[in-house]
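About this split. The held-out portion is used to measure sequence recovery: a designer receives only the structure tokens and must propose an amino acid at every position. Recovery is the fraction of positions where the proposal matches the reference. Here is one held-out target exactly as it appears in the evaluation file.
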């Protein structure tokens, strides 16, 4: 369905103020370079002014106090928040299975399903499962014995939730994520690796989002916990008994070892990680790339590298490494000069009077 708004209507939606012609029709959103006269774009700072002057966009979202623009502008207190609302205005409806239970679904007779829930094709709900009101479960999802799912959740196709896991309200889990698989636990005896039973489960608190193909392992005992409002990207691994606080963010390919503690409002960039039993304090940041915490990270700090250390120190060390070729050449010249001086000294000492 094609949608169209005037600039004035969009300003009302995003919570901004119009500057210029508010009657211009807008039918979509694009970046500043590829924008056409029918779409809106945005910029966040003056360093993009050059691109904006060349843009064909029909309207632009800019920060309050931003200078003149070649097209109508919507002045926003927070451009990031306004852009999210702008995208929402043009977003197509999110696909969902029809309310009720699809005929191909396999639902144990002991399952309890709340009002308005939608159970899609080939879903498997095992014994003792509970599904809260208005939860949408897409095709091919498997939920194991005794698992509990809250209200207004969305599970995309082929999600696996193993037995005994607890999923609270408004949790979104994207395709092929696995919640509650066994963790990596073995002991070596009699020439082989012997499995350690994992008898715990996983607890995802309300408003958590888990990305596609991510894995949250069940605990050896108790629960692996992801706190309220935390967002986890695709291809992230959380090992057994990890506990993450509220409103933290883990980007793609993070790997978190067993029993790690991550506080509230932490940010872990792509490919960051932590070794067993490390504690990462509230509001700490691990930079993207290879940032591996091998010891506790203090609250509010920013670290990077392997092993992770203060980010500013890591940057200085990298800068020093880049100067190594020039420093090596300089040392060779100094060594050659010293050698010449030594030879000259020896020649002088050998000339008797």
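Reference sequence for scoring:
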């Amino acid at each position: 369905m094609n949608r169209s708004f005037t600039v004035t209507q969009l300003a009302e939606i995003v919570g901004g103020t119009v500057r210029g012609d508010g009657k211009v029709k807008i039918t979509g959103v694009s970046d500043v370079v590829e924008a056409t006269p029918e779409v809106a774009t945005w910029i966040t700072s003056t360093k993009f002014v050059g691109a904006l002057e060349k843009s064909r966009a029909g309207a632009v979202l800019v920060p309050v106090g931003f200078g003149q623009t070649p097209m109508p502008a919507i002045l926003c207190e927070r451009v990031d928040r306004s852009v999210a609302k702008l995208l929402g205005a043009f977003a197509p409806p999110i696909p969902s299975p029809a309310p009720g239970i699809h005929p191909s679904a396999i639902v144990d007779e002991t399952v309890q399903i709340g009002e308005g829930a939608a159970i899609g094709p080939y879903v498997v709900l095992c014994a003792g499962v509970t599904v809260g009101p208005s939860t949408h479960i897409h095709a091919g999802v498997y939920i194991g014995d005794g698992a509990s799912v809250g209200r207004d959740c969305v599970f995309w196709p082929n999600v696996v939730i193993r037995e005994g896991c607890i999923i609270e309200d408004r949790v979104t889990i994207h395709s092929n994520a696995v919640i509650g698989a066994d963790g990596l636990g073995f002991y070596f005896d009699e020439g082989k690796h012997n499995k350690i039973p994992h008898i715990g489960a996983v607890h995802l608190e309300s408003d958590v989002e888990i990305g596609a193909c991510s894995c949250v392992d069940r605990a050896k005992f108790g629960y692996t916990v992801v706190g309220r409002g935390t967002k986890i990207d695709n291809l992230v691994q959380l090992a057994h008994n990890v506990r993450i606080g509220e409103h933290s963010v883990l980007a793609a390919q993070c790997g978190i070892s067993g029993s790690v503690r991550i506080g509230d409002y932490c940010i872990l960039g792509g490919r960051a990680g932590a070794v067993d039993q490390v504690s990462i304090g509230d509001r700490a940041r691990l930079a993207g790339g290879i940032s591996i915490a091998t010891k506790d990270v203090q609250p509010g700090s920013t670290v990077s590298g392997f092993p992770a250390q203060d980010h500013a120190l890591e940057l200085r060390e990298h800068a020093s490494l880049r100067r190594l070729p020039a420093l090596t050449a300089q040392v060779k010249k100094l060594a050659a000069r010293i050698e010449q001086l030594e030879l000259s000294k020896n020649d002088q000492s050998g000339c008797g009077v």
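Annotator remark: The chain has two domains: 5-90, 100-312.
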